[in-house]
Structures are given as C-alpha cells and as structure tokens.
Amino acid sequence: MTGWHLDDDTLRRYVERTDSLAEGASAEQHLLSCEPCRARVTAAVTAAAGGIDFAAVWDRTRDAIEVPRPSVFERLLRGAGLPAQEARLVAVASAFRGVWLVGVAAVLVFAAFAAALGHARGVWLFLAVAPVVPCLVVASSYDPRMDPALEPELVTPYPVLRLILLRTIAVLALALPAVLLFGLVVPGETAFAWLLPAVGFVAVVLAASTWVSPLRSAIAVSSVWLAVIWLLAARTGSPDAVLQAPAQAGFLALAAASFSIFLLRRRQLRQLRPWR
Amino acid sequence: MDSRPNDETLLLAVAERDMGAFRTLYERHAGWLAIRLARRCNDRDLVADAIQDTFVAVWQKPRGFRGDGDIAAWLWGIAIRRLVSRLRTRGVAAAVFENAGVAPAAEDQVLLSVEYGDIGQALARLSPEMRAVIQVVVLDGLSAKEAAQLLHVPVSSVKTRLYRAKAHLRAALAEGPS
Fold first, then answer.
1. Measured between beta carbons, which residues in chain B are less than 8 angstroms from residue A13?
2. Residue A276: its pLDDT value, please?
C-alpha cells in the first residue's frame, strides 16, 4: 500500500531467522498488511527444504473439518473420562436419540403435572409411570432390535457385559435426575417412592436379559407393575401399600437378588444374537 | 494478483462452505503464518499442529472476522493463541526467541543501527528473557497470562520482566547511542 516492500535480503534473513528482533518485528508488522510480501515469504518457506509439509497439514486440516462433531451426549461422556471409542459405542444407542428423550420427558411431564394438580388419579398415574420409565429406556439402550450399531458390535471383540453396564449407567445418569426433577412437583412421599421400585425393575430387566430379549422383559415387568398399581387403586384408593417401608425393602431385595443373578449369569450375555 | 479474489471474498465463500476458497486461503496464508510461528517455537510438529488448528477454527467460525483491519492480522491472532494452547497441553518448553548460533554479521548490525536507529541497539542489549517478553507482549499483543503459558514462566515473572525491560529501553533511549 505504501510502495515500500521488504528487500530480498531482509526477507531471506527473516525466513532463515538470522535477523535481529527489531528487524524481524518490523518485517512482521509489514507482512500483516502487505499481501505481495506475504506471497514472497510463503514462496520462500515452501521452497525451503526440511520445513513443514504443508500438503500433509492441509490433508489433516481437511480431515479434521470433515469429521462430524460428536453429539452433545457423547461429548458429556468423554468429559466424564470415558475413552473416545467407548463414548461413541455407548452414545450410539437408540435410547439417547433426541426423539426418544423428548417422548419419555413428555410422558413424565404429563404424569407429574397430573399429580401436582391434585387430581385423585394423578398420583397413581405418576406412581405407575415413573418406575417403569428407567427400565424401558435401559432395555431400549441395548436391545438388539433397537441398536443401530448392532453389526459392528457383533464383529468387534468387546465385552458385552461392559457395554450393557456402561449404557445402563449412562442412561440412568440421564433418566433418574429427569424423573427426580419432574417428581419434585408431585406432593408428598410419592415424589421419591418410585426410586427403589425403578432400581429393582432395572435389575430385573438386566437379569432377565440373560434369558430373553431385554425389551421383552422390560415390557413384561412394566405390565406387571401397571397391573399391580391398577389393582391397588381399584381396591384401596390409597398408594400407601407401595410407600410403606416393607414394600420399599422388598424392592431393594428384588434389586439385589436380580443384580446377583445378572452377574452370575453374565456369560449368557456373551452374544447379543440369541435374543433374536 | 489482479483477477484473484481478495481475502474478504474468500472468507465469505468459506462461510458458504466453499472448500476451494478455503484451500486458496490456506495456500495464501499457511506459509507466512508457519514461519512466524516457527520464530516463536522451534518444534516443527507443534507449529504444524497450530496451523491445522488455526484453519479448522477458521472453517468453523469464518464469521469471527468482524471486518475491521486485515484478515492476516486476524489469522495471526488465532494462530498464536492456538500455538499457546498446543504448548499448554503438551506441557513442554518449546519456545525459542533467540538464534544463539547465528548472531547478525557486523555489517548487518551497522545496517540495522542505520535503519532502526537507537531502538534496535537498545533492544539488542536486553537479555534474551526480557526480549522474549517484549516480543510476545508488546509485538504479538498477547496477555500476560498467555505470554506466561508460551514462555513457561509464572505470570508474575512476565510482569516484572516487562516492567524492567521497559525501564531499560527508556534509560537506553534517554542516554542516546553508546
């Protein structure tokens, strides 16, 4: 712009780094605003052997921008310390799809607000829905029929037990706080009464999946629970039976027993295919 | 450079996801950015990584350029900070600010003092540590914290060295060339 340009000697000393600080600083200041001199520096740098392989850096840059960004959930998992490959394997499950999460949240919101409004059946509805939500999402997180990564998983030597547990923990870390949050608007003890039944049902689904498909067992568990709640509501009109300490202890025992069975029979999980 | 698109046009095209324009931008700027980074870090791999990070950042946020000043200056601002961040994650002191082996020849010194006068001489008399701080803080425009990360010294040292270097320069310029 000024008509002044770096002379060839100054430019050579700049590229070879044999100039002084003042001269280098002056050259750098000029380069920021002078395209022709930048082009000359670039030409000199590219010509200099033993420098940076600009073609290779370009290839890496292009690769880096063409890789899709990992999903929010996957980045969360990696932030929690899970290696990148495992985070991808865990997060790919259908249960972490946005559509799924929105659907589950909608059901919970509906049940929670029905209870909050003080409607007589609202509390029952929340009590019926809240415990079965975690076990349904856990089952869907590793059921082969809903697993978009099934084929790669079948041919990859990766411990199925580890995959299932990782996905279960991840999905519970997502689902339990959500249900708890919605439960806060529910009056009374019901807000937390679903927690132990939920843990028990998840354990039952895990244990049952050593025999049958996880989704099938989750649906069976949910159906039984809904039937029990329906009967209780019809007979007594008060959810006390579920809220009392003996019932809660029973759910805890159910969880412990089911989880033991799951661990004992974990070898039956070696392949995902037998459920089909 | 008559019919070639200017940097602003290229950057607008990059915002429209034009890979060809991005490539042109890379070819136009990667070279001088690399040599300027290499003057601050003697690890070629780190410089290459910083160049890659810089252009990935440009691709992801081409609208980060507000249209004020030169695109070259904007790119340099990204590049030097990417280098600092690479150095921080690597945790090694790879920064160099001096070419101890290649002192300027005598006639170059004379030329310098003619061309740059007292400032060049005053700078040359500073210790390497002080010159490094002057370079990153005054000339590159980094914050004291970023300079500390680049030079692998505490922030407080950056501040004292900068203070002392300025005092030296002021004194040297006041008493005139020796």
1. 108
2. 43
**Model pLDDT, residue B52:** 93
Architecture of domain B106-175: Orthogonal Bundle (1.10)
**Can you point out the beta strands (E) in chain A?**
none
d(CA A86, CA A167): 10
Rounded (10°) angle between helices B71-90 and B44-60: 120
Domain ranges of chain B: 7-90, 106-175
Q: Which residues of A touch B97 (CB under 8 A)?
A: 21
The answer to whether B148 and B155 are in contact (CB under 8 A) is yes
**Residue range B35-69, pLDDT digits in tens:** 888 888 878 888 899 999 999 999 988 888 887 77
Asked whether A225 and A201 are in contact (CB, 8 A), the reply is: yes
A9/A269: higher pLDDT:
A9
- Cβ of A75: how many Cβ atoms within 10 Å? 13
Q: Which of B23, B24, B32, B39 to mutate to test the interface with A (most CBs of A within 10 A)?
A: B32
Whole-number Å distance between alpha carbons of B153 and B97: 14
Does 3.90.640.10 match the CATH number of domain B7-90? no
Residues A72 and A66: beta-carbon distance below 8 Å: no
